[in-house]
Amino acid sequence: MALACPLLATAQPNNPFNRSRTTGGGGNSKNVFNQGRKNNFNEYRASLNAEYERMSRMPWRNQNVNAPIKPVKVKPQPPRVMPDDEAARRRNNQKDKGKAIQIDGVVRPKNDNAKVQPIAPIEEQKGQAADAFTFQYLGTAMSVRMPSDGKFRMNGTGSNSVGDVWHTLSDAKYNNMLVDCMKLRQQYDLCDWAYLQMLQALGNAYLGAGSSEAIMLMAFVYSQSGYKLRLAEVDGRLEMLFASQHNVYDKPYIVCDGDKFYSMNKGGKSIKVNPAKFPKERSLSLWVPGTPEVKEQPAAARTLTAKRYNDMTAKVSVNKNLLDFYTSYPTSEVGGNFMTRWAMYANTPMCASVKQQLYPALQRGIQGKSQREAVERLLNWVQTAFVYEYDDKVWGGDRAFFAEESLHYPYCDCEDRSILFTRLVRDLLGLKCVLVYYPGHLASAVQFTDSNAIAQGGDYINVNGSKFIIADPTYIGATVGATMPDMDNASAKVILLQ
Questions:
Q1: For the chain, which terminus, N or C, has the lower number of CB atoms within 10 Å?
Q2: What is the number of other CB atoms lying within 10 angstroms of the CB of residue 302?
Q3: Measured in whole angstroms, how far is the alpha carbon of residue 103 from the centre of its chain?
């Protein structure tokens, strides 16, 4: 679905070239003003790139490389099973009010996911000779207009070579390529991470995978799009470092101008950093506000059925191209709090194709049911339609799943189940959910709005004056309101979700 691209946005008040040009003459006044505004933006962007080129030719600074940030590792709590007779007793006991869980704090992940804007609006070049260059990203053919003489070569990776190439790329003949890249970002609903990867795919396809030229093209488009980066010489080769709003796990990094920068490639021990930068450049966000709308390549379908409710069954196939995106996604934390990473997965919406397969089937199973019973059915489906296994055994280390990944892979653990369950409850029933973290275990809780559902009781948490009733997708067969045995409530923390 193509969306309008705000490349000719209104000039910002603090833009030094934001000045009106007026003349008499009615309609001509508007044309002169618009042409003047375009000229001002062109001059402004040209001046920014000229300054970037000048700084790139200055001596590059040696930087210390910091060891990767590792996720907090705790011993996972094994799943537990509630016997069927106990579950039946709890479902039928309307007087089981449960107990209030005294939590140790509330985690509020900050989501600063404002759309990054270009350093200045970019004027499309009409009538310019160009070749349509097609490349692949996530199994999807994408095309941009490249100047007929657009390919270039670098003479080494030194500062003057980088400056020379930046001067070349700053020519207006590359404007249409820039315009097309930013349109692709909107057309395919690419989040910051997906957009960066798309640019890497473009550079590799056009100028050779991993080449210095490909890195320069990626860096140029990324910078013109408004993102914060640093070019660097790493162990004698050219690399691009991206700045992230969040702490990225398992990747070495440098600190430059107060921000953490991570390599798009493997990094190294010796790093010399280009001092050039742009005003108002923005760090990448790893929130995923919408899944990339890329070509469908269906994986093998799975049929998933709840043990207690045979009518809660669905056959689902996930897009392989989307799975590739999820595999590439770097796990991170918001504000230095490791618990926020689960919110980043849980707040990501499910893609449209999976919703179309899954949601009608589950809606049939909860249709006409009370609010409490509908949640019970969704909970049992997540508890029993999936096979539990530890990440260390399957993946060799911790790995959280986006909701679609739990639908595809044969095994999932407590965090994956809670992410999927809270996604389903929010989408299908419109109820608010939170994640509940115990050391070694992740569960969830639901805020009911129906008084009868609330009156049925169960263990609960008070969050800002609202009651959230426990629903644990890893306490197999358990009812809503049941806390898994041996959980240390004194250490429980609540993670707020959108």
A1: N
A2: 16
A3: 29
**What letter would DSSP give residue 486?**
T
Q: Let me know if 83 is exposed, middle or buried by CB neighbors in 10 A (0-12, 13-18, 19+).
A: exposed
Pairing label, strands 387-388, 411-412: parallel
R_g over Cα of the chain = 26
User: H or E stretch including 33?
Assistant: helix 27-56
Q: Taking the chain (498 residues) in consecutive chunks of 10 residues, what is each chunk's mean pLDDT?
A: 35 36 45 57 94 97 93 90 90 74 91 86 87 97 96 92 97 96 97 98 97 98 98 93 96 94 84 95 96 97 97 98 97 95 97 97 97 98 96 91 98 97 98 96 97 92 94 97 89 94
Q: How far apart are CA 164 and CA 395, in angstroms?
A: 45
| Residue of 67, 69, 66, 65 lying closest to 332 (CA atoms) | 69
Within 13 A of 171's CA, how many CA atoms are on the CB side? 14
Q: Judging by beta carbons within 10 Å of its beta carbon (0-12, 13-18, 19+), is residue 18 exposed, middle or buried?
A: middle
Strands across the sheet with 466-471, in order?
Answer: 106-107, 493-496, 432-438, 441-447, 466-471, 460-463
- Whole-angstrom CA distances from 131 to 37, 117, 202, 220, 289 are 29, 26, 14, 19, 33
Alpha helices (H) along 208-339: 212-224, 320-328
pLDDT of 309 = 97
pTM over 0.85: yes
CA–CA separation, 437 vs 338, rounded Å?
11
Dist CA 88 CA 104 (whole Å): 31
Q: Which of 450, 452, 472, 451 is nearest to 461 (CA)?
A: 472
Residues with Cβ within 8 Å of residue 224, at least 6 apart in sequence: 45, 118, 119, 122, 178
| Residue 360 near residue 428, CB atoms below 8 Å | no
Please give the pLDDT value at position 72: 87
210: left (phi over 0), alpha (psi -120 to 50) or beta: left
